[in-house]
Amino acid sequence: FETGSLAGCRVLVTAGPTREAIDPVRFVSNRSSGRMGYAVAAAAREAGARVTLVSGPVALDGPAGIERVMVETAEEMRVAVQAHLTGCDIFIGAAAVADYRPAQAAAQKLKKHNATLSLDLVRNPDILAEVARAHPRPFTVGFAAETEDLDANARTKRMQKSLDMIAANRVGPGQGFDVGDNALTLYWEGGSESLPHQSKTRLARELIARIAQRFHDAPPS
Ligand code: PMT
């Protein structure tokens, strides 16, 4: 890890979950704590970058020296990302964006009249895919959280979303969501590398070193 390897670069990172309202007191969300994305933002700052962190609701303090923008929903995250994209050299999507949201949030708290309740969900916009389609586009890095077929699913996601790199993590006991440690396999055009199980802080530094290297070797097309 080379200090200063991202000196002069602007890096935009997303982290944490999003919350999609069901009614004024309930939401659909996931187990992301924000730790991975916050560690990535801090490591990019250590490497000399100017970092903006767009964060869903988490219990973490903002890392020192980083501009943090707090959001709640996928739509708010999308607006914040678009607002900070101009001049951005590298985008890293570590957030666990809710893929679906309730078709309509109820204005009043839902009453429990029935034994069962069905929710109609609609797809959320894919923030990462939108960034990858921008002109000009930053060097675009996605994450893939998988419970099975990590290798095949990560490669497919990278191709489908036209990413410069994807960082895949297996989710399960001791790694992935809401724990201090993780392991990642990185995929890019023509290569891959596994980064071993370790603290998210150390892992993020290794990830940023690989991103810096690929960014300087093969800037976005
Ligand atoms: O926050 P922690 O508790 O530290 O956990 C870390 C993590 C497991 C959340 C993180 O390492 C991780 O894998 N983040 C991505 C989780 C995810 O939603 O993966 P996905 O395979 O569903 O999404 C693929 C990529 O598309 C991700 O970069 C995601 O940010 C992006 N995406 C997905 C859906 C959507 N609507 N918009 C997006 O931008």
From TrEMBL:
Instruction: Provide the residue span(s) of the region labelled Phosphopantothenate--cysteine ligase.
Output: 11-221
List the Gene Ontology MF annotations in alphabetical order: FMN binding; metal ion binding; phosphopantothenate--cysteine ligase activity; phosphopantothenoylcysteine decarboxylase activity
Name all DNA/pantothenate metabolism flavoprotein C-terminal domain ranges.
6-213
Give the record's GO CC terms.
Answer: phosphopantothenoylcysteine decarboxylase complex
Q: Per UniProt, where does CTP bind?
A: D99, K109, P125, D126, I127, L128, F143, K157, K161
UniProt keywords (A-Z) are: Decarboxylase, Flavoprotein, FMN, Ligase, Lyase, Magnesium, Metal-binding, Multifunctional enzyme
Q: Which GO terms describe its biological process?
A: coenzyme A biosynthetic process; pantothenate catabolic process
- Enzyme Commission number(s) from the entry: 4.1.1.36, 6.3.2.5
Protein's pathway = Cofactor biosynthesis; coenzyme A biosynthesis; CoA from (R)-pantothenate: step 2/5; Cofactor biosynthesis; coenzyme A biosynthesis; CoA from (R)-pantothenate: step 3/5
What this protein catalyses is: (R)-4'-phosphopantothenate + L-cysteine + CTP = N-[(R)-4-phosphopantothenoyl]-L-cysteine + CMP + diphosphate + H(+); N-[(R)-4-phosphopantothenoyl]-L-cysteine + H(+) = (R)-4'-phosphopantetheine + CO2
Describe how the cofactor binds.
Answer: Binds 1 FMN per subunit.
Reported cofactor(s): FMN; Mg(2+)
Q: Which domain of life is it from?
A: Bacteria
Q: What does this protein do?
A: Catalyzes two steps in the biosynthesis of coenzyme A. In the first step cysteine is conjugated to 4'-phosphopantothenate to form 4-phosphopantothenoylcysteine, in the latter compound is decarboxylated to form 4'-phosphopantotheine.
Q: Family per UniProt? A: In the C-terminal section; belongs to the PPC synthetase family.
Q: What is this protein called?
A: Coenzyme A biosynthesis bifunctional protein CoaBC
Species, as recorded: Thiohalobacter thiocyanaticus
Q: Which residues of the full protein are shown?
A: 181 to 401 of 418
